[in-house]
């Protein structure tokens, strides 16, 4: 039975398959997804492998499928998903699939070619009809007479942009009218964007002896398959004599203009227009039927293209896997090597038997477990709940084989550390409900196959998010923080000790003197000692106090230190499990024990002092550990005390001289009584702890390398290490061992200090989140509540609440949530996992059809 605490036992197996049944057996293993094959033909290139021709055929089918899919998308149709189970096709079905794809491709190519020809003919007919209609308009508007006049002026040098010393001769106009009937003309169609350039070019090349008239037209693209320019213009070119005709036609060809012969006679033009209209109607009918047939073909293809794609994908992946197998000399047996979970070898064997039966072979496959010194891949049996947390760990590095997996502990610690920084019950409820919606509609979202990367990131971590929301509600109730406001459920344990009459007098006095009243309540009369503190979390009265940060900051800071050191302590304890599992008693005695002594003598000792200070030191005077404690002004300063411990600074015992209770005389207190020794034997205890912590460092640094050197000189194989100490030749290298051990010793010693300080981010981000939430409340929603009364006030409350809600979601939940997530990620990767986790393993990547299909659909990366 699989467990998530350590990776599964893996076995390297050798499989012997008959050539005829190899395809079906590999197909069954692909459906099972529990075998990672090794390439036994690494020295051969892709063209020297046995099934290279089958791979090429699959590549060709994939090309045809891409073409068919493009045609489906071109018609604005959706490609239907293949939600049903698709079994891997047999080799004999590959030929049938190839024939179907080739038939569809040829049919679509033929239809596209015919449609293109029909579109071209239809466009020419439409252009010809537009030319005839435009020529009639242009000739009726007197264009021929204007052309004759313009050409005559150009011949005399009177036309053009520059006329120097030339006077027009009006006696020639009658002659020009007579000659207008002798003008020749050429008609055609040109793209509208080229019209102005075309006209200027004709003017300059023909020296103004060609008269141009143009009229804009639009040609519909009825097929929508080809990019046919629809914005065009009809032109008519007037000129005199046949000499200019050839030049004009060459210019038209240069501008890719289509020339159409238009009769000069009105009757002939009318007859031709009737014929063209008839042809246009016939062509439109043929085009519609062709497009309708094409749409039927494309629609049928769109329903099956995904099915075909998955079949081709499975076929190609099977042959690609078969190319990793070696072939015996008889060419009748394929030999494969693969990693698989030891506990699932029976399932793999059953799949091989099914494949053999399906292929009709009588020779059963052989599965042998091999002995190897290679490092096996790491494989965890996961479900949809544990997958998200395992992905968080794997993002740092894959666990070493059979190494303690941080994921089970991350399931609890990650959302908890996130919640310590995000602690607001209101925001936690929003996050929890969002993740709950993901869970409720989980099946529908999976069936939708949404490919948006950001959405899939949130959906993939839905179980992480719901726990983060739940823990945020928990820490939010502890902080008594609900959208920056406190909730008074059990009733505050603080009361106002000041007489209301005095308060009224002071209030009047403060109003007359324009002063605010500030009171500091002493815990003795104001706090209810009999009933004890607030039952759950922070007392709500602190949300009203001006000095609430002075109370909350030390509490959260000390809480962060205690949580951080506890997690680091647990991480070092987990390293013991790795050492014991690897039977590395050298690491247990000379690495783990010194690390624990160093951590406990300094940092765990600090946490114990924090807890004792919380439990015993109060505002009232009393004897604590045999010393008279006069009041809160003498509460021990733990930070300075820790510094004094390292400096071995001499301090007095107790808080007052003679250790005699004196409630009124502060002169009997020691100077800086909060820096003195506060429990019996503290000086000796701290000296011993400091000495043990200092001595543990050279033990961690020197003992293990020296012991390994002695073992090497005796000829004993080196064991109990991390796999370091051997150079490229496999020889023991004391220098490498020493450097490696020095790096880890320095990293651990300095890391304990820096990592402890790093956990203060729990306090800092909690403070930042609470202050941002309070700013949004005071500057937006509170403003709407106090803005006005009546209908205007109701409208303003709605407006301000909308802005408040949008900013709360976008800034406090999304941005602050992402920030807290990244900081929690860092605390796990660096501060926690560095104590025991190697993260240099090899991921188990089995041959799985499910994985390949999800990759092809863009659902996985």
UniProtKB/TrEMBL annotation:
Keyword Transport assigned: yes
Any GO CC annotation of this UniProt entry: vacuolar proton-transporting V-type ATPase, V0 domain
Subcellular compartments: Membrane
Keyword terms, alphabetized: Coiled coil, Hydrogen ion transport, Ion transport, Membrane, Transmembrane, Transmembrane helix, Transport
Transmembrane segments annotated in the record for this chain: 416-441, 453-474, 557-577, 589-616, 628-648, 688-707, 791-815
Membrane disposition: Multi-pass membrane protein
UniProt keyword Coiled coil, yes or no: yes
Pfam families found in the cross-reference section: V_ATPase_I
UniProt GO MF annotations: ATPase binding; proton-transporting ATPase activity, rotational mechanism
Function statement: Essential component of the vacuolar proton pump (V-ATPase), a multimeric enzyme that catalyzes the translocation of protons across the membranes. Required for assembly and activity of the V-ATPase.
Family listed: Belongs to the V-ATPase 116 kDa subunit family.
The protein, known as: V-type proton ATPase subunit a
Source organism of this protein record: Mesorhabditis belari
């Amino acid at each position: 039975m699989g467990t998530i605490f350590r990776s599964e036992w893996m076995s390297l197996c050798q499989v012997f398959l008959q050539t005829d049944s190899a395809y079906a057996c590999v197909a069954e293993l692909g459906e099972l997804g529990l075998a990672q094959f090794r390439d036994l033909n690494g020295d051969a290139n892709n063209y020297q492998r046995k099934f290279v021709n089958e791979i090429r055929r699959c590549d060709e089918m994939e090309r045809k499928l891409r073409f068919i899919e493009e045609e489906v998308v071109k018609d604005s149709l959706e490609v239907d998903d293949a939600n049903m189970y698709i079994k891997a096709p047999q080799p004999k079905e590959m030929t049938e699939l190839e024939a179907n794809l080739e038939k569809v491709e040829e049919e679509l190519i033929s239809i596209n070619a015919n449609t293109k020809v029909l579109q071209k003919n239809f466009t020419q007919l439409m252009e010809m009809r537009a030319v005839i209609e435009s020529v009639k308009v242009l000739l009726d508007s007197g264009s021929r007479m204007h052309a004759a006049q313009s050409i005559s002026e150009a011949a005399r040098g009177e036309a053009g942009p520059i006329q120097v010393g030339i006077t027009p001769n009006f006696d020639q106009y009658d002659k020009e009218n007579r000659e207008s009937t002798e003008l020749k003309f050429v008609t055609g169609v040109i793209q509208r964007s080229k019209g102005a350039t075309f006209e200027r070019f004709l003017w300059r090349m023909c020296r103004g002896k060609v008269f141009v008239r143009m009229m804009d037209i639009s040609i519909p693209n009825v097929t929508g398959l080809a990019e046919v320019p629809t914005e065009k213009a009809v032109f008519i070119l007037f000129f005199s004599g046949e000499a200019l005709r050839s030049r004009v036609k060459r210019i038209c060809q240069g501008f890719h203009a289509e020339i159409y012969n238009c009769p000069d006679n009105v009757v002939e033009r009318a007859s031709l227009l009737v014929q063209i209209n008839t042809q246009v109607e016939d062509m439109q009918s043929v085009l519609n039927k062709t497009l309708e047939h094409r749409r039927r073909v494309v629609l049928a293809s769109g329903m099956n293209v995904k099915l075909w794609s998955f079949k081709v994908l499975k076929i190609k992946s099977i042959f690609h896997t078969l190319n990793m197998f070696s072939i015996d000399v008889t060419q009748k047996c394929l030999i494969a090597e693969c990693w698989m979970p030891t506990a699932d070898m029976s399932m793999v064997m059953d799949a091989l038997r099914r494949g053999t039966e399906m292929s009709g072979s009588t020779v059963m496959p052989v599965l042998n477990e091999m002995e190897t010194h290679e490092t096996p891949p790491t494989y965890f049996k996961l479900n949809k709940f544990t997958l998200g947390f395992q992905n968080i760990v794997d993002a740092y590095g894959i666990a070493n084989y059979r190494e303690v997996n941080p994921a089970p502990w991350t399931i609890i610690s990650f959302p908890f550390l996130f919640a310590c920084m995000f602690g607001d019950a209101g925001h936690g409820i929003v996050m929890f409900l969002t993740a709950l919606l993901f869970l409720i509609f989980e099946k529908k979202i999976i069936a939708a196959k949404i490919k948006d990367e950001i959405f899939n990131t949130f959906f993939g971590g839905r179980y992480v998010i719901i726990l983060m929301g739940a823990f945020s509600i928990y820490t939010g109730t502890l902080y008594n923080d609900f959208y920056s406001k406190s909730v008074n459920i059990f009733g505050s344990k603080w009361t106002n000790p000041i007489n209301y009459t005095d308060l009224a007098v002071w209030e009047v006095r403060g109003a007359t003197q324009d002063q605010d009243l500030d009171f500091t309540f002493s815990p003795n009369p104001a706090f209810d000692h009999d009933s004890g503190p607030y039952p759950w979390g922070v007392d709500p009265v602190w949300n009203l106090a001006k000095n609430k940060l002075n109370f909350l900051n030390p509490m959260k800071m000390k809480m962060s230190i205690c949580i951080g050191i506890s997690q680091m302590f647990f991480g070092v304890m987990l390293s013991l499990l790795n050492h014991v599992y690897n039977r590395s008693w050298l690491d247990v005695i000379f690495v783990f024990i010194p690390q624990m002594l160093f951590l406990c003598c300094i940092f765990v000792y600090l946490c114990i002092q924090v807890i004792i200070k919380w439990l015993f030191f109060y505002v009232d005077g009393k004897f604590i550990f045999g010393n008279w404690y006069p009041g809160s002004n003498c509460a021990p300063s733990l930070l300075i005390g820790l510094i004094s411990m390292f400096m071995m600074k001499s301090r007095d015992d107790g808080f007052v001289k003679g250790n005699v209770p004196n409630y009124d005389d502060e002169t009997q207190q020691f100077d800086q009584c909060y820096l003195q020794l506060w429990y019996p034997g503290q000086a000796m205890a701290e000296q011993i702890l400091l000495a043990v912590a200092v001595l543990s460092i050279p033990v961690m640094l020197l003992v293990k390398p020296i012991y390994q050197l002695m073992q090497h000189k005796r000829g004993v194989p080196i064991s109990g290490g991390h796999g370091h100490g051997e150079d490229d030749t496999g020889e023991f290298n004391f220098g490498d061992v020493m450097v490696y051990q020095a790096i880890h010793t320095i990293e651990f010693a300095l890391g304990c200090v820096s990592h402890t300080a790093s956990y203060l981010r729990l306090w800092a981000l909690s403070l930042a989140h609470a202050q941002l939430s309070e700013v949004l409340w005071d500057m937006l929603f509170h403003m709407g509540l106090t803005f006005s009364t009546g209908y205007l006030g109701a409208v303003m409350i709605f407006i301000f609440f909308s802005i408040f809600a949008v900013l709360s979601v976008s800034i406090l939940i999304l941005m602050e949530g992402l920030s807290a997530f990244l900081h929690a990620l860092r605390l796990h990767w660096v501060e926690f996992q560095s104590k025991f986790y190697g993260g240099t393993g090899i991921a188990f990547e089995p041959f799985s059809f499910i994985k390949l299909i999800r990759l092809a659909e863009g659902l996985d990366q």
